[in-house]
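Onboarding guide, step 5: your first structure request.
Type a short instruction followed by the sequence, for example:

Predict the 3D structure of this protein.
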Amino acid sequence: MKNSSDFKFDLTFAFVIFAFVIIVITTYTSIYLFTKLATQEFEDKIKIIAENIYKNYKSKENTIKNTTLALAKNDIFNSTFVPNDDILKSVFKTMLYSNSDLKEINYFNSYGKNLIFCIKNQNNIYCHNNGKSLKIGDIKTDKDLFFKEKFKANGIEFTAFAPVKIEKSPGFIEVKALIKNLFENNNFYHYIIVDNKGNILSSDIYNEKNLNDIFNYFLNKKILQTDEGFVTDEIYVKKLTNNIKMIFIQNKRLINKTNQISKTLTIIMLVLSIFLAVPLGMFFSKPLYSFYKELDKRVKEEIEKRQEKEQLLIAQSKLASLGEMLGNIAHQWRHPLTRLSLLIQNFELAAEKNRLTPEFIEKFKTQANAQIQYMTQTIDDFTNFFKKDTKKVEFCPKEIIEEALKLIEGRLKQNRVDVELKFLKTEPVLGYRSEFSQVILNIINNAIDVLKERDIKNRKIWIRINGKKIEIEDNAGGIPNEIKDKIFEPYFTTKFQSQGTGIGLYMSKVIINQHFNGELYAYNSKKGAVFIIDLNKKSTL
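The system replies with structure tokens like these:
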């Protein structure tokens, strides 16, 4: 557990991190919302802008068409007299002055010879005779109006032809116009004008010749197939003519610039937050620090009480183990003591009948020493079995189980309990031998007690080892449901107070969980209770 000073530092540091996280989240949330709002604004406005551009284009187109038709059908061209050059020039000048988009008006005869042309250069208009001839094959003479447009870097050039239908001087009127600023200069969007094949006719940002040079195949195909609508959140398409489309692309430079400003602001706010959060953290941490200090004190007191309680439990467990060991020694000594008693009785009878020959005495001594040696070996076995280990070692659970069964062999025989061993697979484990021995003896002795208490006829215990998993099962009928969740609690016992302390299974679980990093649990089978010792988790030193 950390001490109070460490906690105070952690608390202050937490305030700094908290302030930093809040600022970063707020800033990047603002960036996201700004980008979202900017995209939404683009979607809302661009449809209106595109529609206005389309209407403006159509309006200017109709104006030029109507101007051309009006000139061709004007009263100056009639069958009663031949048009006068001065009158025509005056009319052409008036038309050029009246419309800022008009740039040039020409009058050709039926053979394509230019008779009169008037051209506007800035605010001045010049009219001349005999200009550049026209190739009649370039226009369709069977219509009232022939119209074409051409997109250039400085705008859209319109050219309209209309036939002059008079007998004395038939010919053509040509009107040329240049529309500038159809697309407004702004930071809101970029535009691309393309034909049906994806050829770029005009753009304010791209110098490429085809959409394939800008977009991928699928996006390019979608653009060309769309007459009007969004192909992505950032690209809007609007059909201008049968052969021409306008593509509007959201301008990201303003958004990126704002994002960059926001990131710079984040760094500034971060630095400020550190300088502000440290004193604020120290100020606000004082009451929490006092609370933690008091809590730390109480926790230490509770830990000390718990350690004292555990020490008491360990001492009681050792006494209980000692009592069990003495009981087992008594069981093991019962037969050799009986044999010694019989040998002594035989020795007394032989003395009364004067049969104490050297051979008899030697035989008595040999047999008596054998029983005493057996009893001494039993003491040594129990002493070694319960000797406290000072460090963890690798051992085989199979050996510990076999040694344990040997030690309680007398108790098993006295209570007529048959033990069946099954070793599927054995693996070494790391831990304290004596503690593991104590766990095995606790479980087996509990099984013997229950078999005896319930007066089971054919008493059996099965012990199965499969790697690092040990199962100990009896046929005593199982653990009652009402106490199934309590058997590993300290001081819980179903025996009389003189027969049990209620700490054996509790200490066994503590040993397996804490010292072997394993698990000890139990469940009921069809025969009885099954206790599982699972040591598959890696033991730690």
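Each response can be followed by summary notes, for example: The longest helix spans residues 253-352.
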